[in-house]
Amino acid sequence: MKKIIVAAALMCTLFVGCEVSSSASLTFNVETGDNINVELDTHKNDYELKADGSRFLVKEEDNEILKGIFLTTDMYDQYEASIMETGTILEDGDYLFYEYEGEAGTERNILLMVPDSETGIIIGSLESEDKVRDAYSKLSFSNEKE
């Protein structure tokens, strides 16, 4: 009986120490010459990462939550200047999270530079602020240097 209790305790310890994780990633060779890796944490959510030509999509079932495109530094600077004039800034830190009234409705977008790269990204969405924040929090970006 004592051996069974010890074995059960060891099994519990093993299971407590393990955390399941899963992710999906895509790498894009972009106009700047960088190889940008886009990674989506897929653990405990229904998000999918898809490529659409030179863009990436984050989808939930058939619903497009986020659409990302890659930018040169000049394009990034132009977007940033335009946002400062016409957008409503929701968050300004490592990235700009903003909204504005577009042709299709209120867009909530994110503008960022990929660390250690010459590549920017603009991510667009027509979803709610909370939905955009949640989906974006599952993404990470890196420059895969050769």
Question: Could you give a quick summary of the protein structure above?
Answer:
The protein is an alpha+beta fold and 146 residues long.
DSSP, total strands: 10
Approximately what portion of the residues adopt beta-strand conformation?
Answer: over 45%
Question: Quick one: biggest sheet?
Answer: 7 strands, antiparallel
Rough shape? globular
The Cα radius of gyration reads: 20 Å
Uncertain regions spanning at least 5 consecutive residues: 6-18
- Report the total helices: 3
Helix content: 25-40%
Task: List the main descriptive attributes of the protein structure presented here.
146 residues; 3 helices; alpha+beta; globular
Description of the molecule:
- Strands 3-4-5-9-8-7-6 form a 7-stranded antiparallel sheet, sandwiched between helices.
- Residues 6-18 have low confidence and may be disordered.
- 26% of the residues lie in helices and 46% in strands.
- The protein contains 3 helices and 10 strands.
- With 146 residues, the chain is α+β, with helices and mostly antiparallel strands.
Please specify the SSE layout and strand pairing.
Elements lengths: L1 H15 L6 E7 L5 E7 L5 E6 L2 E6 L2 E9 L1 H14 L1 E5 L2 E8 L2 E9 L6 E5 L4 H9 L1 E5 L3
